[in-house]
Batch of 2 targets.
Target 1
Amino acid sequence: MRKSRAVSPEDQKVKAAARGDEQAFADLYDTYLDNIYRFVYLRVEDQQTAEDITSNVFLRAWEKLGDYQFRGVPFRAWLFRIARNAVIDHYRTRKETAPLEVVINTRDEQHLPVSQQVGLRIEAEGVMQSMQQLTEDQRNVLTLKLVHGLNTEEVAKTLGKRQGAVRALQMRGLQALAKIIKTDGE
Amino acid sequence: MVSDMKDVLETCLARIELGELTPEECLALYPELSQGLRPLLAAAQKLEPLKQLAVKPEFRASGRARLLEHIRNHPRRRSSRFGPLALRYAASLATLVFALATAGTALAQQALPGDVLYSWKLASERVWRSIQSNRVDADLILADRRLNELHAIQGLPELEILGVSEYADLLRELRSDLETDQGRVSAVNQVLAAHKEALSDFFASYSFLINLIGINALLALSQAEALETASSTATLFVLLAGLPFFMWRL
């Protein structure tokens, strides 16, 4: 028997956007902008580049949405897949390496005391530098799972890997990260 | 053990994310793995500040405006009623039909009068003839084919009459095309002279043939009319004589 799934409000928005509904797509943009920007920024580590790539991700998503199928890949995993490919394209075509310049804007920056803002930025900068020493796959898995909150199945679909491979990458990535943090702390 | 660790780590991270457990509570649940698990959960906690990363408000607004402008300037093509899978099936079906048509046409070229594929052969010849720059030359090539068919079915009266009828129809086409291309008279003359000789065995049974073949016969108006009459007669004869044969074949 075919398993039926309730259509979520997000699925309805995706379907409406696929039919050309601008407002529905704008809503999806609002929902996922931070996620996609964060994902891209953690790879390119340059604010302007991250913004450019993020904009391109949504333009590509708009162009390709007509081909998106609800079978199998959830929308956000599909969107992260586009973002991942956009980052890969960026590294393939860029002519010079952007300097590591951590400029972090946080969700609640406006409401945090300056001392906390500074502390948060220092922590984030430290983790990002540590993450640089991981493999690309490990970085992708840790970011998607632990920063963006995708489950293992979604990560596997985003990266085109088996769930067992994702779990193994997660463990090896955390082991490596723990080692780097320990070394840096000594 | 490694597998256990992977699974336990997965479980702990999921339950911590959901707020069901703290890292310490999770370690307490798996004391035998806690030594290896502790630094991994601590490393995972180090990623927490990254969750706060967000776009600048000005980029959010300007990016949204640019996106909407792009959407309005580039309305996305509406998705097809049929998904990519259906289109793939359609493409496969079209390829299959094309392959079958090609194979069938190739196979039909060997067909003789009375064969199932003979109509297909004649249809494919009509298509081929319609795209030739010189119709008379095309007619001569087809006349050679009809001649070869007649030799192949010689001695089978019920098929011979079909072959002779097709040959007569072709001569009529040739006459029509020759009226607009008088420069090819000598070439036609040579071919028809050879045909007259090659078909001499048929003249006893199909006497009207001798009045059709030959350039003079072809060009003479009165004989051309006779040709049409003969062709009509032959067609009628084919219908009457061939009916039992077709019924037998079916």
Target 2
Amino acid sequence: MSPLLRPACIDDPGELAELVSEAIGEIISGGVLLDAALGNDEFGYFDLVAANEDGEAVFFFINFSGRETEYLRLLKCMRWYQENRNVLQKLYAGRVALGPAPSVFLVAPWYSDSMRKVLLNICESRIVLLKYVCFQDGKEKRSLFIEKVGDSSEDTGKADRLRVPEARSEASPSGLIGDRPKILPKERIIDPREFRREIGTDISNVSDEELLDLLE
Amino acid sequence: MEEISSLFLSSTEPDHSAETIPHPAPSPSSSQLLFPVFCCVSPSPAVESFFACNLSVEIAKNHRTVTIIDFGFERSIVRHLMGYPNPSHGAFPPWNTVHPDYKVESIGFSGLPEITLISPAMPREQDFPKRTVERIFAQEQVRKADLILINWPVGPDGIAALGIFTRFHRAIFLIDDQAHSMARAYSRIKRLSSGCKCYIIGAVFGEGEDGNTVLENVSKLQKTIFKHLRVGLELRVVTMPLDREARISMQSGRPLALLGSSTSCSARAIAKLCENLLRN
């Protein structure tokens, strides 16, 4: 007989982070937890850092309370990350590739419609919105049920447009992180149309092929 | 990096571009012009004007006739950098010629041949008519100049007077570390490829900046030129640092080439570029 599960409240953000970290392998296929609380209080921090099976960094931002003001911390730590990416890449050298626009998974108990729209368009990164519900069984063991309620790459094709597939790690997902071969940083796919719009002057005599030769 | 490094490179790859890039023959009646400058530094027009006016002064020191065509429209940065005030509309001294759509001015420095500055008189918002370009290039000061510097070629890009530009057989492009300036330079090199045989790519970087990024961009530009344009093009790369003295010169309206600074690596780079031009 299946255990009877009852909805439960989580009072401790640390406990929620721990439960999410236990579920990382299910949230991200082949995902491995690397670190927790990357950043600082002043400039914001990501609650969890993980690597997917391709060795790419995935950040988790947990909004324990669900309050919308908490997303200011997300904005701060996104900026902090951009400004410190090179240093962080050294910190995680050989363990995970830190791209300019890493995937960010948000975990919150709920999202308003307006906030969901904002979050899915907040930056170039792929943003995945995860809603959680906590349950506990008769022995008061807690577990999370996590549901994906939004994905910016599905809405806009952002991830496909901005990135190229990277050489996959030879190591098995379950292998030790330290055994992974060094992973090269991800390259951006240049969109010639976007570049032409940005440049603002006539380069119509330059073909897309030539432009890509120049820019890549 | 302080010294000019000239890399003489020629394309030896097969001409894959001949079928796709039109190469109209230069008009037999038009003479080839010695050395125009197309500046492609992004994002600062002041920087390209700075190099244009300093190069012109350096060439003038060698008793050559220099004409600058400045497409800076109403307010010429070159004029300002030469230490001349920008006159209000219609207030040019009588020895300068003001045409309805462009003006011809003489800029003099003690002991040097006069430098001619030609600039369009029309507001920036107006289209730049083809006839204006033709008239400017029919000017005696342009036809007889040893060196013509064309600054800020936004105007000619937007007009249909490309026939004139096929008369140039050497050109200079300045690029910085921005991908935009690299793309603009390539676009213009492609437009000029029917007439030009030799290009100088000036890699501009500021004091304290890492010049490697701009040199990487130059390398990409070379690679693309060799891959997509015809064989026989000659490319030279020079490094053009912008040091503290250059900044002071830009702010003070006094050409660096006249300051006689012995410590400025910008001044040395400009002098060596001038030597290089006159030697060939």
